[in-house]
Structures are given as C-alpha cells and as structure tokens.
Design a protein that fits this description.
seven-stranded antiparallel β-sheet, mainly beta
Length: about 450
C-alpha cells in the first residue's frame, strides 16, 4: 500500500513540475574552466514541439521548424563557373605612363585567365611579348626601358585554364619627352604700314631663350626653322616686311630658339593685302574632316600628363603647356598640323601654332606659353593635306586653375620610389627651401 502511495506522489510531483512556468524555461548548462575556476554560462534553447512558436524561449525556424513554420532563408548565391559562351576579351584596359619611361598596362577579364601582351613601335606589335604566370581576373603588366617621346603600340591576348582564348584591339600610348621644347612666342600679329607689313610679337619669358626666327612662304606655313624664306633673326619684337604685293597670300612662321639649339614648334600668321573695295571670297572645302579623338591628344605640364574629362583638361596657370599627338591618330594624307588656342587677352580670337616632329618622327608636338588668367579657353587641332584642306579635327577646352599647393607627402613618395640616394638629398634640400619660403 505504501508503495502505491509513493508511486502516486511521484506522478503528482512530475505533473506539477511540468505545469510550472519554471519548467518551461530553457535549462541553462554550465561549463567550468579547469585552470581559472570561472563559470561560463552556456544557455541552450529548447524546442518542446508543442505546435506553438515561442520565440521568448528561443524557438525559431532553424531550431524548431515544427513549432515555427515559415519560409526558409534564401539560398547562398551560386558560385560562378566559367562558361564556354563567356568572352575572354579584355576590358577596362588602362595605361599609366610614368616619368621614368615605364608604362603600366592593366585590364580585367570575366573569367580567370593569363594574359600575353605584345608590344612594338608599329601597329604590328612585333618587338616583344610579355606573359603572365598566374590565372586571375585582374591583370597588370609593366613595360620598362622605353624611349622618350615615342609612340608604342600593344595588344592583349588571353587564355583560360579550359583552353578558351580572347584578345583586344591594338592600342597605343606616347612616352614623355626628356627634352623640353622651347616655348613659342606670343601675341604674333601684324599692322599695315603703308604698303608694308609690320610684324609684332612677344618673346617667351624663358631664361634659356636666345632668339626669334621668322620665315615667310607664298605657298604655306614654313615648318623648318632652318629652311628657306628667312626674313628676321634676333631678340627684337618687331620687323617690317617690305617685299609684299596686293592680292597675294603670305604665310609666316615664327620660331623661338633656346641656348641649346632647340626650336619651338612655331607660331603661324596668314596675311593677305586686299584693297578696301575688294571682298575676300569665303573658301569652302569639299573634304569632310575626320574626327580626331581627344584620347589621342596628350597634354603635359612639367612632364606630368593631363587627361581629359568630358572634353575638358585642367591645367595650372603660369606653367607652359606641351601638346602632342601620335602619327597613327592622324588621317591618311596629313601634311601639316595646326594648333589654335583661344587668346586669354582677347576672347574669341585664336593664336595659331604649328605642331612639328622634333625628337621623334612619329610624334607631333607644340609647347605654348603658360596662361596667366583663370578661366576656360578653347583649342582646336586641325590636320591639313597638301592642298591645305582640313581633313581631321579635334577640339576641346583648357580650364586654367590655380597652381596646386605643395604636396610634401607626394614628394616623399616620389623620393621613396627612386633607386638612387641622390634623389633623397635633393628632395630634402627642396623641402627645406619650401619651408623657408612658406614659414
């Protein structure tokens, strides 16, 4: 009998325990550190499978799906596997040309691949090939020991691990010049003095300036400072051309020569004497000019290249500007290249300069004097054939900004990249000079 009452008491105790709210709480487990004697509470949530979702007790879909039915979490994104139909052609191709005559060429591919970069001085890119070692989707190859003021061509071929191939078009870039071309003269214009032509100009503000040379032609602008047609040579700022005729075209080019024997690209001027009663008929060309891309035109200041953004190139005031363009970017049949830049002192009027080959026969360049006023100034580059017809053009805007402040950490980085200790010494002296001026 006692045994029966004991059994009944145990059953009643169990039922009371189950009905108690404390029994419905998750049972905490404890783990004791053997070396520190600290007790760490590790609470484990239960799932009582009673058909009621009780998040206050830690029930959720993942741990208790019968009590908490719902939508499962989204599956992880699928892993990308190369597809036989996925192109391996390079994209996002970029070229960074450095002052140390190296060029870093980067690109991307959609699938992992290795790249083979062929380069050369012509579009055949036959001078050499550089291959990557590792497969990847981000690629970079550096060309070193390049020649200054030279045009280089390259193309990229790719190969994936499963044998697929891709390739790019042929691209080109131009390395910086180690020899700075002399600045052109400025404000080259004329006045009539009776039946004579008075030429006026301003010599460049350059300590290396030696003299101005002016040549004249009856056909087109002279492009060789040592060629025929010399009418002036010296350090003056005016000269009188007395051998002129009415209804005749005269083409003048003025070159600046420095103490090292280097010539500027030349500034041009076209004069035709017409009586007041005579009207000059407008000339039209039957040739439709080809559009030259701004990406093919280079601009440098202090040997740092400036790039176009939405047709605008930001240049600093009080620093001469070097324009250059590769021969491959010009239309077939180009004989002369004229650079027209809006005059900062006479908005709406333009100063014309020749772009000539100086150091390298495949690159045309012109160095123009610095702007001294802030603002936007238009420029136009025209390619002319032997009939003096415009067969190619490119236009853009120069936005003159203030000179950038001294960047001491940028300068230290350039010194850090140098391979010789002389750069450290002169960089330190330059920094001390800056401190003396600004403190």
């Amino acid at each position: 009998m006692k045994t029966i009452w004991k059994i009944i008491a145990v059953v009643i105790f169990i039922l009371m325990a189950v009905a108690s709210p404390a029994a419905r709480q998750p049972s905490p487990l404890y783990a004791q550190s053997a070396d520190a004697g600290n007790i760490v509470h590790l609470q484990v949530n239960n799932c009582n499978n009673n058909g009621i979702c009780e998040p206050q007790f830690g029930e959720n879909y993942l741990g208790c799906p019968l009590d908490c039915p719902g939508n499962p979490p989204p599956p992880p994104p699928p892993v990308h596997h190369p597809s036989a139909n996925h192109s391996l052609d390079p994209y996002n191709i970029s070229v960074t040309v450095n002052e140390d005559l190296t060029a870093l060429i980067t690109w991307n591919t959609y699938d992992a691949s290795v790249g083979y970069l062929s380069w050369g001085r012509t579009a055949e890119t036959a001078d050499g090939t550089i291959a990557e070692i590792n497969f990847g989707i981000e690629h970079a190859i550096q060309l070193t020991s390049l020649q200054p003021n030279s045009q280089y061509f390259f193309k990229i071929e790719t190969r994936s691990e499963d044998g697929r191939h891709g390739q790019s078009s042929v691209y080109s870039f131009i390395t910086p010049s180690l020899i700075s071309s002399p600045q052109n003269i400025t404000d080259f214009h004329f006045q009539l003095v009776g039946q004579d032509i008075l030429l006026l100009w301003q010599n460049p503000n350059d300590p290396n300036f030696q003299k101005t040379i002016i040549l004249r032609s009856d056909i087109f602008y002279p492009n060789d400072p040592q060629g025929p047609g010399l009418i002036y040579e010296g350090q003056g700022t005016t000269t009188l051309d007395q051998r002129v005729k009415v209804f005749h075209d005269y083409y003048y080019t003025a070159f600046a020569e420095d103490i090292y024997g280097h010539y500027s690209s030349g500034v041009t001027l076209h004069v035709r004497l017409i009586p007041y009663t005579e009207k000059l008929a407008s000339s039209t060309s039957s040739v439709l000019p080809t559009i030259i891309q701004l990406s093919d035109i280079g601009i440098e200041q202090n040997r740092h290249q400036v790039y176009f953004s939405n047709g605008i190139a930001e240049i600093e005031k009080n620093i001469p500007i070097r324009f250059f363009i590769g021969e491959s970017a010009l239309p077939t049949g180009t004989n002369e290249i004229i650079l027209n830049i809006e005059n900062e002192f006479a908005p709406g009027s333009f100063t014309s300069s020749l772009m000539r080959t100086t150091v390298n026969d495949h690159v045309y360049e012109a160095t123009v004097p610095a702007f001294t006023s802030l603002g936007q100034y238009r420029f136009l580059i025209s390619a002319l054939n032997k009939k003096n017809q415009t067969i190619g053009q490119a236009g853009g805007i120069l936005e003159v900004i203030k000179q950038k402040s001294f960047c001491w950490y940028c300068y230290l980085w350039e010194i850090y990249k140098a391979d010789y200790y002389v750069a450290y010494f002169f960089g330190f002296l330059d920094y001390l000079g800056w401190l003396v001026i600004h403190i």
